């Protein structure tokens, strides 16, 4: 199954290389079996996430919940990991990464299996959904930090940017029809199927990672005691807050990510409810919508990213992407029909993809190898609160006013911060030129 999915994805890779976004030389990474298994395993997780993104909101609505309940689910999904993010980097740096990933996938699969059993028995409640989301998000944080640390070990620092871009394209290729299929399958066979597919995606990722040689993902360091983990957990925070220029760069990038995640929490938490309440979308409609806006936005957002970085630099490119993302979110307030709404959401996805990929890559290029996991934990903690706080805030605005007002407020905040940062950067460059 995994090999077939990879072969299908590889068939369309030449199309993307024609854009010169991925160089022909970079494709040698695909000849590495371990790298293929790693990114295909990640792609299988995305397939499950696509089903979950449709299943969970509709489950909450099915159980009598509303916009604020969905927003709370988003908050729980992102607030829980903040608790573990303090120690997840130390765990990732202290132990072998392969067993950590396998444990996270297996435990998340077990948690989802319990929720699926409750659903099929007719015993599922919204509280159970919140509990399952909290558990899987905690495990997902540890898994994400570990995978993020492992990919640079797997491909090397020089190949990191191309590896992350190839990973994004393969994920989109494998899951290009997943949102559409998710909507149709859930509509025909019920919400329970979405839970089952999510469970199977964790199983597929478990199998893929289990086939990778352990040393390719990173061996354990010397510290392994609980006291060592507690002491070393602060190393990443100390480095980011230090006078080290690279640490300062990571801190600035993290603060930009805070703004991006905060304003993006409005459509993340409210869009499904907005489409259902305003346009009577069904699961099939949501599937088609997510599939089309997702793949078009992904390709558009990544197609010229490499040339933009080389011409503008990471910081300016991220600031411009943040501005575009904020403008598109604000314009959701003025979208009178689905055609304009579709266009706006595609641009929003493109801008968000460009910003997130740029920030993630830029941060990892600045971090020393020996601190990778712990600094990523610090970044996760710095940025982690922005999404749950934003989801709760915009959920409250939506309940007090309406969805469009929440989108407008998020957009105005993002536009204001983006323009402030861009103008500050222009002034600094002007002073440097004059001096």
UniProtKB/TrEMBL annotation:
Entries under Pfam families matching the protein: MFS_3 (PF05977)
Membrane topology reported for the UniProt record: Multi-pass membrane protein
Compartmental location: Cell membrane
Transmembrane domains' residue ranges: 37-64, 70-88, 100-121, 127-145, 166-189, 195-214, 255-276, 288-305, 312-334, 340-363, 375-398, 404-422
Keywords from the UniProt entry: Cell membrane, Membrane, Transmembrane, Transmembrane helix, Transport
Main subcellular localisation: membrane
CC per GO annotation: plasma membrane
This protein's name: Major facilitator superfamily (MFS) profile domain-containing protein
